[in-house]
Amino acid sequence: MSEVMVKKKNNTVNKASKREENSFGLQKEKANHIIEVNDLNLWYGSDQALYEVNMDVPEKQVTAIIGPSGCGKSTFLKTLNRMVEMVPVVKTSGSIKYRDQEIFNRKYKQEYLRTKVGMVFQKPNPFPKSVYDNVAYGPRIHGIKKKEILDQIVEKSLKGAAIWDELKDRLHENAYGLSGGQQQRVCIARALAVEPDVILMDEPTSALDPISTAKVEELVQELKEKYSIIIVTHNMQQAARISDKTAFFLNGELIEFADTDHLFQNPQDKRTEDYITGRFG
Amino acid sequence: MSIRIHFEEELENLKKQIQELALDAKESLDEAIRVLYKGDVEAAKKVIENDTLMDRKEEKVNDDAILMLAKQQPVASDLRRIIIAIKISSDLERMADHSTNIAKATIHLGEHHGIDVDPELREMGVIAMDMVDLAMKAFEYEDISLAKKLAEMDDQIDRRYGMVVKEMLELTAINPEQIQHIMQMAYVARYIERFADHITNIGESIFYLVKGKTYDLNK
């Protein structure tokens, strides 16, 4: 059985890494884990938002996170690059390792983490600058000044975000003048420009029309060849279409984490079944 | 309390259509066998006519199911429920085709064929009809223990089918002039046996619905 049932406050959690089997019960090649989360708890002041989350994120795969509003999925995502700590009252316990390094360690450099673990948000948020300057922004901050190198990075990043052909003649136009779908792909290009390892996406298509959504979904499929992607989505079919693994969160708990094919065909937990079939009431 | 009331109603409606089709399939077999024993050619024609109605009903199940797949984009047990509706309706339609074949055999035999219809065929028919009832109970309550019993009953039918074929072979040796008629009887036995196989398939669909995995009850 490939399903991984996750138990709250239970140290004997069965992780995906330990039971990698497909639906025929055959052993699959074990995926490397780029991020390992162990016993993660998180509080906003006195309100606990995450409970004993244990989850191993596979490398160069798409991991979808689903769950109703307020279940902690966005909080969890923002914890992975410590962005959540921008909220002053946040407290955490437990461990998150990125490439075997503990990110909660005081000596761990947040800037490095946020370079390696990039983020794309729900609403496209380009800077009020040209397409070129948006994408070159990160590399410039990292001290790259030579125009020819920046040119290369901008081209490579826009190609990586599958928008180079559309924008190569409009590089110096203001990004605000682009369509929502184009803006979102420019934001993805901006995230790619600093050469990340992991891309966190928080409902990246919820503000886009179906065509732009399809383009971003196609892009996600291409990006996973080079990057590990974690995507929070309210669109169940999107999770089913584009992800390799899916995690279902409810009330701050990770209820089920399994191969996407399996989770959408035959979930093991009744709560997962009720949620994905739209019977939460 | 579910928040997808309309979808639930559509699923319930699909279930009712399947139950109705099952009842039709059972009645078609009952009638086909009754007509066979009576040698009633006119009534046999009526059995064949009714099959067209069943074909329409099966199409309706398929149309409704496809529309639900497109509109509701179901997953998990909802998806399995719709998939098995398509499969079960196809099995039921095939079952009715076998009843039609029995009716055609009756027409072939004609009204005065002069040989006795083997009582074993009636027994096989009774078991097959009991299997339909059991399958529909398993379907209604999503009960795999009942679905499993279908395999045992199918084994009984298979054994009886073997016996009938053996008897028919012996009969051809004694009555070579009746070989055409005897062959028709053997065909009827075969049609009932195939009818029962489709009910076993329904049992497998119920397994798939409940467990999310495929099972072979015919093994």
Automatic annotation (TrEMBL), chain A:
Entry superkingdom: Bacteria
Alphabetized UniProt keyword annotations: ATP-binding, Nucleotide-binding, Transport
GO terms under biological process: phosphate ion transmembrane transport
Molecular function terms, GO-annotated: ATP binding; ATP hydrolysis activity; phosphate transmembrane transporter activity
UniProt cross-references to Pfam families, sorted A to Z: ABC_tran (PF00005)
Keyword Cell division: no
Every ABC transporter domain range: 35-276
InterPro entries: AAA+_ATPase (IPR003593), ABC_transporter-like_ATP-bd (IPR003439), ABC_transporter-like_CS (IPR017871), P-loop_NTPase (IPR027417), PstB-like (IPR005670)
Any one Gene Ontology cellular component term annotated for this protein: membrane
Record-linked CDD domains: ABC_PstB_phosphate_transporter
ATP-binding as UniProt keyword: yes
Name of the protein in its database record: Phosphate import ATP-binding protein PstB 3
Species, as recorded: Halobacillus karajensis
Gene: pstB3
From TrEMBL, chain B:
InterPro entries registered for this protein in UniProt: PhoU, PhoU-like_sf, PhoU_dom
Record Pfam families: PhoU
One Gene Ontology cellular component: cytoplasm
Keywords carried by this UniProt record: Coiled coil, Cytoplasm, Phosphate transport, Transport
The UniProt record lists the keyword Cytoplasm: yes
Keyword Ribosomal protein: no
Similarity annotation: Belongs to the PhoU family.
Subunit (UniProt): Homodimer.
Name of the protein this chain belongs to: Phosphate-specific transport system accessory protein PhoU
